[in-house]
């Protein structure tokens, strides 16, 4: 089962506890977001006009090598937070809004819970 499929069926935490499979899958998503570079990449993509960013713009925002940035982008794609599209020699990245929406819904615990 893909991580996004697990996220889509995850109930909010206040309704019922996560089972072991869901918790393991979600932990991978949160682990990906737990890295400051990856969190910044998500922020760069999310805040960019038009909702997509060329890899050249992402790489330029960091003092890291291109292979390191590529690794971080790969991790974010593997957990379902980003998608990409190649256009000529450049790759453009977009957020998967449903993935962030599911994380948000999962953590949206009422104050009375």
Question: What layout of secondary structure does this protein have?
Answer:
Layout: H1 3-8, H2 20-33, H3 36-47, E1 52-54, H4 55-60, H5 66-78, E2 82-87, E3 90-95, H6 97-107
Antiparallel strand pairs: 1-3, 2-3
Structure description:
There is one protein chain. Strand 2 and strand 3 form a beta hairpin. It is built from six helices and three strands. 18% of the residues are buried. It is elongated, with a radius of gyration of 15 Å. The chain has a three-stranded antiparallel β-sheet. The chain starts with a helix and ends in a 6-residue tail after the last helix. The model has no long low-confidence stretch (mean pLDDT 85). It has 113 residues and is α+β, with helices and mostly antiparallel strands.
What is the oligomer described by this structure? Answer: single chain
The helix/strand order is HHHEHHEEH
Count of extended strands:
3
Name the shape in a single word.
Answer: elongated
Tally of alpha and pi helices: 6
The strand line-up of the biggest sheet is: 1-3-2
Residues in helices, as a percent range: 40-55%
Quote the average pLDDT: 85
Main sheet attributes: strand count, strand direction, barrel closure:
3 strands, antiparallel
Uncertain regions spanning at least 5 consecutive residues: none
Strand fraction equals 5-15%
User: What structural category do the secondary elements indicate?
Assistant: alpha+beta
C-alpha termini separation: 30 Å
What would you report as the Rg, rounded to the nearest angstrom?
A: 15 Å
């Amino acid at each position: 089962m893909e991580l996004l499929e697990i996220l889509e069926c995850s109930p909010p935490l206040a309704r019922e506890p996560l089972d072991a499979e869901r918790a393991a899958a979600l932990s991978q998503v949160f682990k990906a977001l737990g890295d400051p570079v990856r969190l910044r990449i998500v922020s760069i993509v999310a805040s960019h006009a038009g909702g997509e960013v060329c890899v050249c713009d992402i790489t330029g925002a960091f003092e890291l090598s291109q292979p390191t940035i590529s690794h971080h982008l790969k991790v974010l794609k593997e957990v379902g937070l980003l998608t990409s599209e190649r256009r000529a020699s450049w790759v453009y990245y977009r957020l998967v809004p449903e993935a962030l929406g599911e994380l948000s819904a999962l953590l949206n615990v009422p104050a009375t819970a």
